């Protein structure tokens, strides 16, 4: 299963595990390797960068233990394609066999044990790509960030997702083709699919029936006035509730404040305009058009949400 991918992207082949470990530390993520097997262990690694994703296929050729102290600001999709791999978290122990996958969150420590015949795909996904997918799909980011549950997923339950992962790897192996635009679409699609396939703190709609209509009314109202300076008091009056009640609704059912919700919605629409070339004259003009008067703070907020400066988005489109 998927062991044929990245055939043209071999960076280490039939080497000792330490050689593969050195490359992983430099390009994929910091870890410490301990070999548990005996004999002449021959390891291999195939690796490629594609659409800001880091794609790898790894096998150590024997039983090893890998300690990962911190994934920094990236998520890891880890897919076992042969053998098995066991994750030892602080309080959990999960074992994955061929055809199973797990999402790992930023700043998450782990202790992994590979079986003798274990082979894995690892997709390194910057935090900004998944943040952008949340916003593009109209989902408010939780205050403590997007977090995937520690839950093993069987890929045969989502054939479309498995084929998408395979397609991303196959496209990364293409040579001599300008994939700049298409690669970005693949990354966006993969991020959106991850949010629907893997359980996370966005998966369940936490809105209760009584507030669902109010939140829908607020979103529609803001979309119609997306370039206006809409206040929280105005939204409270729209829903016929007090400002305190509105904050309680957002805290319970959205996970962020009304002010942050307004800002994220404005940034989402502005980002969509830049990507589509709509009214994309220059960054300053379009920022002021959406009501962002403090340009330094605007650029910082935009970068936190989308992983790049607005000028970089505009330059890429042009």
From TrEMBL:
Coiled-coil zones: none
Lineage top rank: taxon: Bacteria
UniProt GO molecular function: DNA-binding transcription factor activity; sequence-specific DNA binding
Keywords, alphabetical: Activator, DNA-binding, Transcription, Transcription regulation
Keyword Cytoplasm in record: no
Domain HTH araC/xylS-type: 216-316
Protein name from the UniProt record: AraC family transcriptional regulator
Species, as recorded: Marinobacterium aestuarii
Source lineage: Bacteria, Pseudomonadati, Pseudomonadota, Gammaproteobacteria, Oceanospirillales
